[in-house]
Predict the structure.
Amino acid sequence: MRGLILALSLALVAANQLSFTPEFSPGKTYEYKYEAHLLGGLPEEGLARAGVKIESRVWISPIAPDTFIMKLVEPALYEYSGIWPRETFRPASKLTTALAAQLLTPIKFEYTNGVVGKVFAPPGISTSVLNIYRGLLNILQLNIKKTQNVYELQEPGTQGVCKTHYVISEDSKADRIHLSKTKDLNHCQERIYKDVGLAGYTESCTECEASGKTMKGAAAINYVMKPSTTGSLLLEATATELIQYSPINILNGAAQMEAKQTLTFLEIKKIPVEPISADYLPRGSLKYEFGSELLQTPVELLRISNAEAHIVETMNKLVTLNMGKAHEDSPLKFIELIQVLRVARYESIEALWDQYKARSDYRTWLLSSIPAIGNHVALKFIKEKIISGDLTSFEAAVALLSSLHSGAADLESLKLVEGLAMTPKVKENPVLREISMLGFGSMVYKYCTEFPSCPVELVKPIHELIIRALERRDYDELISAVKVLGNAGHPGSLKPLMKLLPGFGSSANNLPHRVHVEAILALRRIAKREPKMIQDMAVQLFMNKELHSELRMVSGIVLFETKLAIGLVTTLAQSLLKESNLQIASFIYSYMKGITKTTSPDYSSVAAACNVAVRLLSPKFERLSYRFSRAFHYDAYYSPWMVGAAGSAFYINDAATVLPRTVMAKARTYLAGALVDVFEVGVRTEGIQEALLKVNDSPATDRITKMKEAIKAELSDWKAYPSSQPLASAYVKVLGQEMAFANIDKPMVEHIVQLANAIDIRAYGKKALDALLAGYTKQYSKPMLVAEVRRIIPTSVGFPMELSLYSAAVAAASLEVQASVSPPLPENINFAHLLKSDISFKAAIAPSFSMHTYAVMGVNTVFLQASLVSRAKIHSIAPAKFAARLDMIKGNFNFQILPVEGVDTIASARLDMYAVARNVEDLEAAKVTSMIPAVNLTHLSKQNSTSLRSRMASSVEDSSSASSEILFSKTPNQVASKLKVPKAFMWKLCALSYTFGIKACAELESRNASFIRNSPIYTVIGNHSFALKVSPAPGPAIERIEIEVQVGDRATDK
């Protein structure tokens, strides 16, 4: 009996001493089979998917205590584009060969008690390949607790530090340990992702995602291990990760990225793995690191051997294809030009500029594409060209504005912009100075959005600028600096702004009223990050009845943007009941009343609080008229789609003013769980108000008469008006950032008058007339990267998943004008000569437009792409020819519209969705698969489909015997829905005019995936096209449309 008890005791002790942590014994090499794939598409089978796969054997061997070496043996890469699961992965043999040197290089990593530490690799391994190793190491990451079998923790991994749930069970009979861990990618202490382009200006809407999600991710790994006293032997690990995304709530259907990994034990070898003879440098940890994919556009994959030659070739094609007419595929070529410029050396860009800057057509394409590079290289180029004087003021302003707001915010870019704003060349130009200063603030905001713990030293130069402006009493410079801080929104700027506010700063009362207003408005961006702090300040300002009423109302605007709690709203309501200033009472009451009707999730709690407040206030303030200050708020939000829009407008009056002191309006949109203040505009009329107040009272007291008298008085006393006092000011914000502002003051008006007086109107008129008589021809094209919005997210496999939206456009136009005058004009021409001439001219104009928009979800690296792509193309051309004869002597005016040949489609649009897989080593083998497989419905149509045709004809008899005919046809495919095959829809509408000899037809074709699920995302998926076509009407050809007008004594003869 004692022996039995002793045996059980020893067994229990041994069981407690078992280690569940994976162990790799010294002197041994553990061989595993590794397979991982990443596929993107819709969850249903029978539709297209795109993905990538990697297979390899893996050797793991210890080389020192807690340090191990990992080597891939016989790695192979595969790519997939096809109908799932009908087709199979295709070997990417050329790509595997090209990456073999990197994939076969062993790496080192620290591994202690199941936790992966630092990763070491030679410099020859790129970040992208090292991330593949991280995907493998992610499987080995195990935080095992000896005393618990079920527990949760925030665990580091490739995607960041996320909530992970562990379940451990032991199968004593099979001598196995089964461990399962699941990771919630929506609850992460630190989520790794990268926003590129305009995505940096969006704000997450936490309340919007309370009832739905636009993105949801989870991962699960199941382990089978054999335990021992020294450590467990990892026998098998199976990992699955699923990320769903939809721009309009995943409950309505979503695309998904599914990753699967398997690691299977094969054998133990006694041959150790040796590192290569190279320096193994620290390359970070298990967390994914971003590399060259940040510069890689997901729209196109290019093999670039000579960047400079590639740029020249691309520009030659763009210039040739867009000579006066926008080519249909030029937007894609423009994106290609941007992509090549991103990988080009700075010296190459400089050389290209020197070569082509004198050629206007090439200059336009270069100046449009270089700012879109989106990094410090573009800023450095623009800065140097501004300093050297190579750019005109207009070119510099456009390029600088584009580069500042579309580029990445990093420390190097911030230093460049800071230096640019202080250069003498920029200081001399008010427009460039303003753009660079405001752009610096925007860059700080984007940088601090990515790195929330950004130091206050970033905005120190602006703080110092405020101090210097206060010392010099330079209030224009002071307001400019305040606006920069408003764009930056850094909490560290709160103290400098407080010093400018009455009640907080000792010398603030001596500052102009407009400085106070701008300082309060600058708090709005800071309130996004520190709402409680700004809330306390705004309440104090609002409650201070000694302040100007406009300051108190502006404080109210800031206060409501902090999303007030019900207690504070009630406090405001009680304060308004005792308020003697009806302007303030009307403003806050109307604002509360507007918010009560809101349906936006982010203001739902404020709306509930305002409902209570409005009930308290309505008996007293409901009947106030519109002559008092008002605030308006309207919005609409559709929760099932997580889509909405909101608009606010404010006008602030004063009892003694004729015009509103301030007018502001703002528009906001909600989409995909994010919100953005799309546009905002504001106008202040402080100087005009003072001018109106100086007008002496007259018997006529209506506003129009007062305004007329004020204008007369202002013009008469203009020279005595102070230069520092603006008549009015205005600002414009886009995406929540102030882009431009202007003060209409005495120096500006005098400058405009000086420019107007300097222009010799007669000389310019003579020059323009000579050009028309000689024949004027002009061809113009302008490209533009309309939008670049990217979010890059790592996956468990180590490949990046990208969600992006690209939109590029090219506008072009050609103009030909030829004029003649009889009799010939004298050398010293004046306007009277034209009134005694017979003028004839012909003109041909052909404006055209082409635009491509791409929405992409999938894998995007510099060597491989496997993505789902939605491509929208819009192309339009509207040529016209005119002729006119103006007989000024006889008063006869003849106008002709001439026919245009060679154009049948004046507008077309097409939307396609497809899966694409390609690699840079074998671009010719790229495979594109339509999202919906082709289905032959011919035999079904013959048996089941019906054709509905109707004809409507009408004729109108008049002096010109005009007639018209409208043809309409609609062919729905009803059998497609019944048999669960893609629906095809065709629609055509034609209008015929015999009077003008023209026939116009609108055609629509659509084939979508709504047969699977009736939801918006499935309706969009497919192929859709629209075309507007024109052609000559049947019958006799119309040579021209002629309009003749006779004036004067001979008018009755016609």
